[in-house]
Design brief:
This protein has about 110 residues and is mostly helical. A two-stranded antiparallel ribbon has the order 1-2. The protein is rod-shaped, with a radius of gyration of 41 Å.
Length: about 110
C-alpha cells in the first residue's frame, strides 16, 4: 500500500508539471498582439509618407538633379573652352618660345 501511495504521488507530480508547463491561450494571444503591433510600426516606417522607401526615392531624385546640373555646367564650360580655342584673338598663357601644342581636336598656338 505504501508503494502505491508513492506511485500516486509521482503520477500527480508528473501531471501537475504537464499542466503548468504549457503555454496558456492568454500568453499566446498577447504575444500575437505584440507582434502585430510591431509589424504595423515596421510597415508604417518603411512604406509610409515619411518612410524609408520614399526618402530613398527623394534622395535618388536629388542626386540625379545634381548630376544633371553638373553635366549642364560642364557642357557650358566645354563650349566656352572650344570658343576660346577656335578664336584667334585670345591670350594663350604667354609662352615666350612660340611653340604650338596639338590636342587632337584643335591646334593651339602658345605665345
Amino acid at each position: 500500500m505504501r508503494q502505491l501511495k508513492n506511485k500516486e504521488k509521482t503520477y500527480f507530480k508528473i501531471m501537475n508539471c504537464k499542466q503548468t508547463g504549457g503555454v496558456t491561450l492568454t500568453v499566446l494571444v498577447v504575444t500575437i498582439a505584440v507582434l502585430l503591433i510591431l509589424a504595423g510600426i515596421t510597415i508604417s516606417a518603411t512604406f509610409g509618407d515619411g518612410g524609408i522607401i520614399n526618402k530613398s526615392k527623394e534622395a535618388k531624385n536629388n542626386v540625379n538633379d545634381g548630376l544633371n546640373s553638373n553635366l549642364t555646367k560642364l557642357n557650358e564650360l566645354s563650349d566656352e573652352l572650344n570658343e576660346m580655342m577656335n578664336s584667334n584673338g585670345g591670350s594663350t598663357g604667354g609662352r615666350p618660345d612660340g611653340r604650338t601644342t596639338n590636342n587632337n581636336r584643335h591646334s593651339i598656338k602658345i605665345r
